[in-house]
Amino acid sequence: MSQVPRYSRYAQLYDKTGQAGFARGAWPYVRERLTSLGWQGRTAVDLACGTGAAAVAMTEDGLRVVGADLSREMLLWGAPATVGRAAQGDLRRLPFADAQFDVAVSFYDSFNYLLSTDDLRDALAEAARVLRPGGYLVIDLITPYCYATLWRDNVQSMLSADMGSIWRSDWNPRTQQSRLEVTFFTRGADGRWDRFDEVHEERGFAEGEVKAAVRAAGLKVAWWEDRYTRKEPHAETNRVFWWLRKRDER
């Protein structure tokens, strides 16, 4: 057994586990709301882009897209749409100049990997910095309710002919953090199985914490909704999408 940095060896398996499907399907859903808000843009950045599933969807939609991800391995194993157009970078310190993009997106609870309200504020401010005035940042966040109910003391497994995985998660109500331990098994060409482990930690943010961070970052909430009901979030909402607009310069 060997514990490795998250998304290092997992990068090669990421699309095989079906994880990229969420990001791929998120863009048409997000674009629909952006259109209703009057957004018109041509340049986009996919933050925490992973293997580039959302970037592919946006590129097919005619946008000029670049990506950024903290994991070098995820970028190396990325889709062709991100090759040569993605940079390694932290959400809190993006490798882009000011006012470069009309829209920034970050899907599949990537912002939940920020483990404090200060980190959340800093990441939102960085996204605002690289947006043009009037541009939008769209993110999704898993709620504390979801972590406390669906992630607490939870175990799941996946198995295929050449890969297996065990996912164990728990929730700490004091820290508002969830810990996910994943054990992967992969079968090589010689038929032998290899095992490695990754640990992922995420933070659940209350509505008030998110809105305070949004204001501090120079953004405003243009729209927010429960991903699954497409209505205003409520006490038992599991995942919220936020459409955040950069304030116009005066």
Shape: globular
- CATH level 1 name of the largest domain: Alpha Beta
CATH architecture annotation name of the largest domain: 3-Layer(aba) Sandwich
Helical residue percent band: 10-25%
Low-confidence blocks of residues: none
Q: Strand portion, in percent? A: 25-35%
Radius of gyration: 18 Å
Major sheet description: 7 strands, mixed
Order of helices and strands: HEHEHEEHEHEEEEHEE
Strand order of the largest sheet: 3-2-1-4-5-11-10
Structure description:
With 250 residues, the protein is an alpha/beta fold. The protein has helices at residues 20-36, 53-60, 72-76, 117-130, 144-151, 207-216; strands at 43-47, 64-69, 86-88, 101-106, 131-142, 154-159, 163-172, 177-187, 193-203, 219-226, 239-246. The chain folds into two domains: 10-143 and 206-246, 3-Layer(aba) Sandwich (Rossmann fold); 145-203, S-adenosyl-L-methionine-dependent methyltransferases (N-terminal domain of TfIIb). Helices cover 25% and strands 34% of the residues. It has a seven-stranded mixed sheet with strand order 3-2-1-4-5-11-10, sandwiched between helices. It has a four-stranded antiparallel sheet with strand order 6-7-8-9. Strand 8 and strand 9 (193-203) form a beta hairpin. The mean pLDDT is 94.
Condensed summary:
By secondary structure, this protein is α/β, with parallel strands linked by helices. The protein has helices spanning 20-36, 53-60, 72-76, 117-130, 144-151, 207-216, and strands at 43-47, 64-69, 86-88, 101-106, 131-142, 154-159, 163-172, 177-187, 193-203, 219-226, 239-246. It is built from six helices and eleven strands.
